[in-house]
Amino acid sequence: MTLPISADLIAEHNAAQAAALEDDYGALGRKLARAGIDINAVKDRVAAFSVAVPSWGAGRGGTRFAKFPIPGEPTNIHEKLEDCAVINQLSRVTPRVSPHFPWDKVSDYAALREEAAGLGLGFDAVNSNTFQDQPGQAHTYANGSLSAQDPGARRQAVEHNIECIEIGRKLGSTDLTVWVGDGTNFPGQQDFARSLDRYLEAASEIYAALPDDWRMLLEHKMFEPAFYSTVISDWGSSILAAQELGPKAKCLVDLGHHAPNVNIEQIVARLHRFGKLGGFHFNDSKYGDDDLDSGSINPHQLFLVFNELAEAEANPRDGFRPSYMIDQSHNVTDPIESMLSSAEAIAQCYAKASLVDRGALHAAQEANDTMMAFQALRRAYTIDVSPILAKARVEAGGACDVLAVYRQSRYRDRKAQERRAVGLGAGIV
Ligand code: PSV
Ligand code: MN
């Protein structure tokens, strides 16, 4: 396997950091031991944790107004895979890539799978795209896709999703994530009930094409591109659709797809209660679907989400196999750096959630001791778990300080010499 960053560079860096890391890890280990926690057991849990990265996240995103590309950005799936390999090589926590079609179309998927494996990567959920027209497409999605009035557009959207399943089978995926932009911009534009009926009918055709071990992850989103109503707008619509479709249909929670201040951790608990929690798109937001870096705005919310996931893991209902993925748009940073930083923020929250004294939390809940219940969470949240993450990474061959090694490697500068420039142009619209 030939990985993009020099193994010697990583080893040299880790050697220089080794004494400080041992010191920090030892100190944290003694602190945790006083609370009856074995730091090595936590480290082993963290080492087994992973989160997928989105192929589209490897490029600079943009807003509706503009995009500011950087030299050395990837322009095709092969270059995106190479960048994703950098993220995983340094962090050792992102071994899978989630592809989006038709953006990542190639002629030979078996070869693509091999190419990824050669970079230490596998494939996660395949994402369909019926929110955008493609050149030469027979039917427009301007008025919707799975819920469109036009039967031709609906058929085309169903066939595209089935094609994504076929591609995913070749890549080794077992999940199809379906997000549709379908909705309206004006009151009265469409009938709410009939558009949902059309969506459900079309979605059931996709569902019928799922292999036995596959899941269909329904991703809801409150608004955008539709600004008055959206067909699968919230977790309520999502779970109703998933229940109607069948056991292989689950709900996917993108953290940016809710109304401001919505209690997302409670949604997580609700979805799990009904066996419908399928997975996550991690990102952060201040105002809407901002697609900011995970944990950059509200790290406490991310922790509370993982706290619910830890509860769910301890009480699995109808199986507990959430798919974890990043879904961000990096408008002003190097996407590799943003995903390194986000993967770390996500793994930190996972680690902190596993430090919660669940016995104390549950006892306080039963005794209506509000302050101690809150403190059980607060105690875990305020622990700096970075030595645990660093130790797990180093033991797996990753870098102690991922961003420092990435910068020292000058990877982006090298790619700027090799890769063709991305044109200026519009943003995501
Ligand atoms: C929609 O905003 C979304 O979150 C969906 O996951 C899409 O597939 C993704 O962004 C990429 O545009
Ligand atoms: Mn998403």
Automatic annotation (TrEMBL):
Signal peptide: none annotated. It comes from the Bacteria. The keyword Isomerase applies. Keywords: Isomerase, Manganese, Metal-binding. GO terms for molecular function: isomerase activity; metal ion binding. PANTHER family: L-RHAMNOSE ISOMERASE. This is L-rhamnose catabolism isomerase. It comes from Novosphingobium aerophilum. The lineage of its organism: Bacteria, Pseudomonadati, Pseudomonadota, Alphaproteobacteria, Sphingomonadales. The gene is rhaI.
